[in-house]
Amino acid sequence: MLATQTIAETGRELANRLFHARRQSDALFNVVRNDFLYERPIPERHRIVFYVGHLEAFDWNLLGDRVFGLKSVQPELDRLFAFGIDPVGGGLPADVPADWPALDRVHQYVNRCRMALDEKLAAGDLAYDSPACDGFPLRTLLNVAIEHRLMHLETLAYMLHQLPLDQKIPQADPPAPSAPPLVGGMVRISAGSVTLGLARDSETFGWDNEFVAHTVEVGGFEIDQYKVTNQQYLEFIQAGGYETRAFWSDDDWNWKTEKGISRPIFWRQDGNQWLYRTMFNELPLPLDWPVYVSHAEAQAYARWAGKSLPTEAEWQRAAYGTEVETDSKLHPNLEAGNFDFRRWNPVPVNASSQDQSAFVAHDMLGNGWEWTSTLFDQFPGFEPFPFYRGYSADFFDGKHFVMKGGSARTAACMLRPSFRNWFQPHYQYAYAGFRCVHR
Prior knowledge:
Blueprint: H1 11-29, H2 48-64, H3 75-80, H4 103-121, E1 131-133, E2 136-137, H5 138-161, E3 186-189, E4 192-196, E5 214-218, E6 221-224, H6 230-238, H7 250-259, E7 267-270, E8 273-277, E9 282-284, H8 295-304, H9 312-320, E10 369-375, E11 401-404, E12 421-423, E13 432-433, E14 437-438
Parallel strand pairs: 10-13
Antiparallel strand pairs: 1-2, 3-6, 4-5, 6-14, 7-8, 8-9, 10-11, 11-12
Helix pairs in contact: 1-5, 2-4, 2-5
């Protein structure tokens, strides 16, 4: 699958992508032992069973009535499974397993939604480029359905990561790539312009927050050649980083203190040894893997190191810029990068020599999202999707920070340069790391 999808795709290709994404989500739910599908591995999230129904409810609510004129047979489940929860927003959910339908009923709902939609998608007379809903063509709505499901594959992965190991059925990773001893530093990024976002007439699908393309001037700076590793972050911990007030903002310090945060969520200390929890195992801390932390923790490390987190534009310039001040055509190497569901876990930050940008910054696509210092906000000319108004606009609240790049569980189609991810600063669970800049 390519990193971008264009309007040249046929309807059959779009349908096949949706069917493939369904197979991937079904396989992911099968990782959980049936007795534990009503667990809530992350306190701020719904129980796992919600997502079994949510993926189909989203497709149904998007396409069923408004596009195909289909009448719902279970409107109460359409509503129940319609909306997720914004992590760290507005208190913790208090529902109990008995509040949710039996698994058999959820599976029946899933199958009915799929069968009804598939009958329409199998028709040969669909107009994929004609307005289907609110002036948008069916092609756009199908891309929304596909990428929504693929996003949840990543959300579900880091949710399931927090389940006790005995509640999951182990899956194997490909053999780990070997990596030479890590010799890193900072690389110089020259001043220049960078393009953020997509043009309205772009042939690439994008979410509403990716529009409209605009040029930003970026001053010269230095950036870490590699993501910050577990070893580097361990040095921060050993230097008393979590106990030093000066490295934390007031809000971040209060959060860390109230929650008793003293380490990354993926780490555990056993005596004098640090252990790392992978999806299906626990092993000695892999020192050359990227560290996964919250924005608050990343920012504290950057202050300790005498550096800063990059802005969204700086990150974009380091990843896609060139010395001649034109954006490069950096496409992910599907054989080299750690993304597109090929692995469950990270790899060393220097595992590949084929993933460097024009400025020789490595590992910027995949192997862990990268925090920026930029608050998530609209681009000039932003217009919300009328059929999904809350996708972006609900989070333009000054409380969410942009992440760029992608993780091992990010689909290749969402590695396009314009894609933006975002979370609140106290969310530790995402597969998110960082690198620092010096100006």
